[in-house]
Design a protein that fits this description.
This protein has a four-stranded mixed beta sheet. With about 60 residues, it is α+β, with helices and mostly antiparallel strands. The mean pLDDT is about 95. A hairpin with a 5-residue loop joins strand 3 and strand 4. The chain has two helices and four strands. The relative contact order is 0.26. The protein binds zinc ion. Zinc ion binds near residues 23 and 44. Zinc ion binds next to loops.
Length: about 60
């Protein structure tokens, strides 16, 4: 899984706006050199905790 910086996730969120997203691809959020443990949708920039990530992944 690729890593994505917190700043990049925020930028993705701004660019994507309120459009619906099926979260097709995820990266691991990292701040500077440290992973935060959260996941980021690479399309819309949504940040998800590990629990929320599992829920989203299990929605068909
Ligand atoms: Zn998404």
């Amino acid at each position: 899984m690729i890593k994505i910086q917190t700043e990049d996730a925020k930028r993705l969120q701004k660019e994507w706006g309120d459009k619906p997203c099926h979260h097709p691809a995820w990266g691991k959020e990292c701040y500077l050199a440290t992973t935060t443990g959260d996941y980021v949708c690479l399309q819309c920039g949504l940040t998800a905790s590990p629990d929320y990530y599992e829920i989203l992944r299990n929605i068909p």
